[in-house]
Amino acid sequence: MQSIRTTCPYCGVGCGVLAAPDGRGGLGIAGDPAHPANKGRLCVKGSALGETVGPAGRLLAPRIHGREAGWDEALDLVARRFTETIAEHGPDSVGFYVSGQLLTEDYYVANKLMKGFIGSGNIDTNSRLCMASAVAGHRRAFGSDTVPGLYEDLELADTVVLVGSNLAWCHPVLYQRLAAAREARGTRVVVVDPRRTASCDIADLHLPLAPGSDAALFNLLLAEIGRRSEICADNLEGIEDAMTAARETLPSATGLAHSQIRQFFDLWLHSDKVVTVWSQGVNQSDSGTDKVNAILNCHLASGRIGRPGMGPFSVTGQPNAMGGREVGGLANMLACHLEIENPAHRAAVRGFWNAPRMAERPGLKAVDMFRAVEDGRIKALWIICTNPAVTMPEADRVARAIAGCDFVVVSDIMARTDTTRLAHVLLPATGWGEKDGTVTNSERRISRQRRTLAPAGQARDDWRILAEVGRRMGWPGAFGWTSPAQVFAEHAALSGIAGGLGSDFDISAHAGIAQVEYDALEPFLWPQSARRQGGRFFGDGRFHTPSGRGRLVAVTPRVSQLVDVDRPFRLNTGRVRDHWHTMTRTGLSPRLSRHLAEPFLELHPGDAARLGLTPASLAEVVSPHGRAVLRVLVSDRVAPGHPFAPMHWTGETAPSGRVDALVPGTVDPVSGQPALKSATVAIRPFAARWFGFAVSAGPIRPDCAYWARATLPRGEQAELAGLEPMQDWTAHARALFGLPDEPLVLHDRARGQVRLAFLREGRLQAALFVAPEPVGLSRSHVAALLGESGAEALAGRPGADRPDEGALVCACFGIGVNSIVRAIASQALTSVEAVGQALRAGTNCGSCRPEIRALLEAGTACRAAAE
């Protein structure tokens, strides 16, 4: 069938996708070579989108208190309960918590309903958790939430600095563009990160600064800009105060050697064209806004902004975090980048909407919103397209707050998440492939997401659900759209009014868009209006501040969070290469689950030795707010005292791996963004009496102290561990797999090992391997035997005639570590490119290239030692 041009639903790169329905409910996926963001490239997550669109786990009909209900009954109940709550307790007694994975049309309707008709600012978004400090920093410096540059600046720059951004794993297509530029024109790359991440693979300089000291580093750079007399003072204000604060910053605050700092200064200041890219490592901090402004100060002061190949660049974590900002999805903003505190802005929006009431002040930001749920100030809560019971800091506390709320509505595509379990009303929403609308990527490019599949079950678009509730609450005229094109046209028309008030966001060229034009809409950069067409901002020296000048902000670096005797470790949280948020989508793909299949704790070898932890053992991690049990990964990529853990696992996939339960609810005082990157913790061995590994063609139902479940091509796998000795492994295995059959059993009493296999007509249905230490076997081999002849399953390893692929390295082509090592040795391969030619590994998304390079280096070291 003909491919449909759409946009990827993962990170903020906003890659174009060609989706071809196969007629059986699935999709063929390819990169769109005509899309400016990716030019045909896709990362492994985007490439695997076709594996994530099936019906597995979907919420297919509305539910009220756990029972299926019709749409009319559910929507009537939602409208009635919100109306009654507002009438009795006022507009601020209700709240919406929404998501950067919504389309702009969904976001617009939610914002209009809450701020213009309910009359409260209590709508906030999970983008508060990732981009709010960038927004606040932009507004302080530029007078507007404006990203000045474009992706092509990465390819035009002399030097690109990545700050708190593991671009290789979190924005792989941008990383590919940067790597290609480095190869083609010698672009220099600096990585500023306490960890040695995959992005360091192309770095000319890695600065492993002390965690949280980003502002100190850029203050030192600002002072150096002043010392070298490179200040461009035209049309700037606040220079003296910012320079005074910069000169008072001590180099020791960064934890870097003087030579490293000097090398950074020289690279930055000897480069005419510099782009500084930052992401969550900067934003997710209790001083994130100051860190952002410390970066912006350097670009403003040196004039490296708004021209080709130069500028500060915030890259967003979600596909439509930018679109949400454009429609006022944050509690402290109005639509079209207008200010909720500005009476003229409020009046303009109210008049355009013909709204009966208008929010007159900012609403509650995410952390404060759930505190208000906890203490009963918010009595009715609607959560849309997000999973705060996992992703919010102090996640256990947030889950308890939601569970105690008078009335909770959750709109989601999945039936079972940590948050849906707490809802009174569940509303089935359409997912990617079923939705129709627009998203905005990190360079301000608006693209269409187009429907490629029929909605699953009774699922409806989020904008349509919200509009129907608005009509039932008494405002049929204001919420009478019949298509997303009409919503987009209204949004564009409002942006023209905003542009007249001085807003940077103006797409009024599309205010009269018709359905046929909307259907054919090509990706475009905003602004798009009679006043201005796309391009970069601020190269002309004009800003959106009252004075028209850019503002430097005096930044006093905050002291890093201190550890203590009871909690001597500072935990850093983040993402892995092949998974996305809480894995409700990527967790459905078998190949995306093969690279890193369970939650882990990356720990420095010295720390591991002191704690008595060995590779693949389990560690218990404890903070005042929660507890997690994680698999130990010993690595010198992290500094002593600064372990790392990813945040993707949930109560559905690994209940004891919910890392955000450890993180305190500390927020940046300006942006309200929580410091999700950091928690002070204690670490100790998890006293497991046994460890297990299980595979099954059917569902696995773990009942033990630790488990982590992942999808396989033919079923599921689970890592297991227990605190109590098991008396009857056969009974336990039957319950684990839901199988009544009699298994084959091997019991090595001397080693304390038990292996059980369930066969049906000679084919493997399930297997369980148990040992008193982490189970050693070829997991990929055992998984591949499901549904096949099961006679060899209990061996746990392939025979000599069947090479073991080993742990997955290249998820794009399914190439394991053993295959790469064998090829390196047998073919004398000496480069990543040579491995790619031999095996294809590393030739698509490129995210695995650092791992391939490490294998090449290890092979070289082994050969040298042998010689």
% residues in beta strands = 15-25%
Given as residue ranges, the uncertain stretches (5+ residues, pLDDT < 50) are none
Structural class: alpha/beta
Q: What's the multimeric state?
A: single chain
Spatial sequence of strands, sheet with the most strands: 5-4-16-15-14-6-7
Percent of residues in helices comes to 25-40%
- What do the pLDDT scores average to? 94
Summed up, the helix count is: 26
Shape: globular
Major β-sheet profile: 7 strands, mixed
| Termini Cα gap | 57 Å
Alpha carbon gyration radius: 27 Å
How many strand elements? 34
Entry summary:
This protein is of the alpha/beta class and 867 residues long. The protein contains 26 helices and 34 strands. Strand 30 (744-748) and strand 31 (753-760) form a beta hairpin.
